[in-house]
What does this fold into?
Amino acid sequence: MSDTVTLVIVDDNIGSLELLSTALEQPGLNIYTASDPEVALDLIVDKHAQIVLTDLVMPKMTGLELLDRVISFDPAIEVILMTAHYSSESAVEAIRKGASDYLNKPVSLPALRARIGTMIQDARRRLRNNELEDELVASSPFEQIIGASPAMWEMYSRIRRIAPHFRTVLITGPTGSGKDLVAQALHKLSPAATGNLVVVNCSAVVETLFESELFGHVKGAFTGATADKVGLVEHASGGSLFLDEIGDMPLGTQAKLLRTIQNQEVQRVGSLQARKIDFRVIAATHRDLRAMIRDGKFREDLYYRLSMVELTIPSLAQRKEDLPLLVRHFLSKFSQQFNKPVRRLTQRASIAISRYNWPGNVRELENAIGHACMMTLSEVIDLPDLPPYLRSDASASVDEPNSSHMTIDQADAASLLEDNERRMVSDALAKSGWNQSEAARILRIGRDALRYKMKKYGLTEPGNS
It folds into this structure.
């Protein structure tokens, strides 16, 4: 990744532009100048500027107005205001609106070089941090699991120790925390890796069909059993059986499963003959099985058989230091899925994500980033692109479902993305009075990108079609 930083200087005085650009010139710094604030805004967007140096008093647009527009595009951009009409009131207003500094003209060039030099170092540090995060995402996955926090490294260590030896293992953790990925890792690192990993979602199987699905049946065992059927347990012979949400398994089936595990043999429904099998069992649940045992809803003997080894997955709230890695991973995933070059989050979007408690864990974060990647029309996700519940001051309740939580369906994503994009481009053009520069700034994209989208969706100014 290049560590080149971009600076845009804005001043209606051409002489000042030449003086400042010459004084600040240095290797690794691209400097662009503009005497027109409208042109400057296009440069800032198109060139992905990290630093803006602007005069306060200019025709068409003041420096404070330019500051507002820049901050609305990307709050991470450093903006320095310069003025020959310094006042403490205007300085306070500028800083309150997000300016990094407020300098009095004539500006001391050595002091300005030092100030810009510090900003360049900060910008390069951010670029390097982004590069390091990309490298860490690339190197950190443990069998497709993303996380580099101490809690996750401890879990990885336990998986490595357990996988070669387990016959049964119980995975516990909140909904959306990645129990399925842990199950896949255990199977892949076990001696049964060459066999099948057969997945049974216990909450999705109709209770009356549970035994038939799990253990199979013989022809004539019940009405509709027109042929012998191999159950999922037999399919797992030589491999592993993953019983997801085992707390939802009926009690009667639990008893038969216990015998199957203990004896390593399966008896199909309607058959008197038991078949020898060799399989490992990975069970997972978000429920408190001990409480279910006390309530008579789960067999104690099965629990102790399964929980000889127990793995607990930390919630996302317990490993918030993994948020940047996970966000970076999902940005990459949805950028490819939606064919959109989404690079990063603004500071305020990152703050909203870091402050939220994520009751839905990694799955909820994935859906939120997918939503944002779908909604943004630029390369940067900002606060308005996030789902509404993340923009609200009040945290979403853990117990109440939130209609704003969005699941991305790959089959519908492309169509929904294009419908949303066309509407947003059309709205921006109408709002700007079909001023393309203004519409591009509203959308936080360059003018060339706007023209491409107008052509793509056949959008023409009324009366010019």
In short: The chain is about 45% helix and 15% strand.
